[in-house]
Fold this sequence. Notes:
Largest sheet: 2 strands, antiparallel
Oligomer: single chain
Amino acid sequence: MGSKNGKPVLREEDISALSMSSGLDGIQVKDAFDSFVAEYPFGRMKPKDFRTMISLAMPQKDASKMEKHVFRVYDTNNDGYIDFVEFMVIFYVMSEGTPEEILGNIFRVFDVNSDGTLPERLTTT
């Protein structure tokens, strides 16, 4: 994702990559981008925005417990924001694939320090 005159712009290579990874066609990717930018005019989501989105998506759950971990997975370049490309890539990574691939992706959410293990408090009842 790039920017032109301070506004976020979806590059053709982003559209192609997202189309291949998501199964959406280019028009659907552009439509999703337009919706994302309408909601987040600077083309990126702050942690506060992400918290609101998670709360709306999971109203019956206490999403605050996993919000930082999920945000970390989405924020692949570690800049403290989630841009459209990061959002789309992780969204489709979490929704597509074999059960083993999806489980591996979910595991990464809870592997807080990326050492390949889960904290004991998450593995005991």
